[in-house]
Amino acid sequence: MSDADTDRAVVKTFVPTYQKEKWKRDADELDMTQSEFVKTMVQAGRRGFDLDDGPAASVEEGGSGGSNPRGDGLETRLLDLLRSEGHLSWDRLVEELAGDFEDRLEETLGRLQNENRVQYSGRRGGYTVVDDGE
């Protein structure tokens, strides 16, 4: 094993508190440290959730690159959920899979409203971009 394989570097990221708490619970369930969990999930994402020890899947190997390799993020989440829970109704699946998106949407809209980039108009029945000259 070369030094390049054993050298370590610190990586920092900032996520919402609810996300960190969920990652901690998931790591605990897998008997992993948070660092091991995040590293594994990042590598899994880069490989299209093929958890082998080989190099990350490239675009030429069928991966799409980016944050959703081969576009199977929903598929993977669905399969993981069904494996962990067994049988779930349609409504429960929608609730489980949409919850994270709804939380992220609410957080993003709140931030954009605080930055005065988006506003809500009850009279017009929805959100709109504040005229920013673009």
Write the layout of secondary structure elements.
Elements: H1 3-6, H2 17-29, H3 34-46, H4 73-85, H5 90-114, E1 118-121, E2 126-129
Antiparallel strand pairs: 1-2
Q: How does this structure look, described?
A:
The chain is mainly α. The chain has helices at 3-6, 17-29, 34-46, 73-85, 90-114, and strands spanning 118-121, 126-129. It has a two-stranded antiparallel sheet with strand order 1-2. Strand 1 (118-121) and strand 2 (126-129) form a beta hairpin. The chain is flat, with a radius of gyration of 19 Å.
Radius of gyration: 19 Å
Shape descriptor reads flat
Oligomer, anyone? single chain
Low-confidence stretches: 49-71
Strand content: 5-15%
Count of helical regions: 5
Strand order of the largest sheet: 1-2
Structural class, by secondary structure, is mainly alpha
Q: Calculate the mean pLDDT score and round it.
A: 74
Total number of strands: 2
Please estimate the helix content: 40-55%
The major β-sheet equals: 2 strands, antiparallel
**What is the straight-line distance between the termini?**
52 Å
What sequence of helices (H) and strands (E) makes up the elements?
HHHHHEE
